[in-house]
Amino acid sequence: MTSPTDPSHVKFVATAPSNIAFVKYWGKRDAKQQWPANDSISMTLSASTTETMACRSSELFDSFTFGGQTITSATTPNHKVFSQIERIRQTLNIQGHLSIASKNSFPTGCGIASSASGFAALTIASAAALTGCATWEELELFGVSRERIASLARQGSGSAGRSLYGGYVRWSRGSSAEEQSIRPIFAPGQWALADVIVIFSDHEKHVSSTEAHKAAWGSPLFEPRLAGLSERLHLVSEAIESRHLSNLGAAIEADALEMHAVAMTGAPAVNYFTPETTQFISWVRSERTSGRLPAWFTIDAGPNVHLICDPKQLQTVTNRIKKEWPQAKLIVDQTGTGPTLHKVTKSSGAHHD
Ligand code: DP6
Known about the structure:
There is one protein chain. By secondary structure, this protein is of the alpha+beta class. The chain is built from nine helices and 15 strands. The strands form three sheets. Strands 1, 4, 5, 6, 7, 8, 9, 14 and 15 form a nine-stranded mixed β-sheet that branches. The longest helix is centred in the middle third of the chain and has 20 residues, at 222-241. The protein is globular, with a radius of gyration of 20 Å. It starts with 9 loop residues before the first strand and ends with a strand. The site of ligand DP6 has 13 residues, from helix 5.
C-alpha cells in the first residue's frame, strides 16, 4: 500500500526529443570518458520523443519497462540502462533503486535511432526521482544543473547530451575530456526548419554507432575530415544565424557523405547505406537541380534519410516523395524546444514545468 507521502507514490515524467546532427559526432578521442573526436552541431526535434517515467522503488534492484517487456538489474546488471542509472546514482551520491517505464512517440522498429531521446529522458527522469525535484529550478537549487544532466546523458550515449536543449546545440570537445561542453547556440525561434524522415528500412542497424565510432580511426579519410571540420562548423553556424537554407543544405550534405565515407573506409568498414539510400540521395539532388524539390539530406548511422526544408515547402516535398517513393514511410518533424519534466502524484495530478 502506498500513501501520498510514500516516495513510490510520486512519478517523475521526462519527455525528451531526438535531435538530428548537421555536423556529425563521429569518432571518440576517449571512449571511456565519452570525449568526441570533433565538435558537433544538431537541431533538436519536436515530434520524435521518448517519455520516461521514474519512481523510487522499495525493491533491491532497478527495473525498466519498454514495449511491454520488463528487465531488472538483478538479472541483467550490465545492461546500458542500468549502467546509466548507476552512474547517475554515483555522480549525485544518492542511494535508492528506481522503477522506470519508457515509451517512444514514434513506432519502435521504424528505423529511427532512439538512443538520443532515450538516454536524455532516462537521465532527466532518474535524476528527478533520486533527488525528488520535479522542476528544472528545483534541480538547479539542488545542485543538479541542466549542464550536469547533459553531461550525464552524454556519458550514456553521446548524442543524448544535445537533446537536453531546444533549438540548435553545439557539443564542443574542448582541449580535454573535462573541458568538453554542450550548449545551445541558437534558440528554437531563430529558425523553424522541417525534417522529413524518409524510412526505407525498419531493421535494427547491424553495427551500433558505438562500434562504428571505434572503426573510424582506421579510415584514411578520418584525419582529413577532422582537419576540415572547423570550417564546416563555422559555415553551419553562419547559415543558421543568417537563415541561409542552401548554404546550410550544402554543408549538411557534405558532412553526412563525409561521415559515411569514413564509416565505409573504416577498419572494419561499415556501410549503413542500402541501394535505396543511394538511389534516393541521387534523386534528391537531381530533383533539386531541376527546381522540384527544395530540400537537403542528412543521414545518421542507418539507411534512412532526413530531408531538411522550409516548413512552407513541406507539402511540396512530401507530395513529391509519396509519388516517387511510395514504399517509404514518412515522419514529419521540425525544430523543437527541448525536454520537459513534471511529476504526477495519485492524489494531486500533474505539476508541469
Ligand atoms: C551518426 O550517440 O549513438 O548519430 O555515444 O556511442 O552512444 P554513442 O554514439 P551515438 O552516435 C551518434 C552518431 C550520429 C551522429 C550524431 O548524432 O552526431
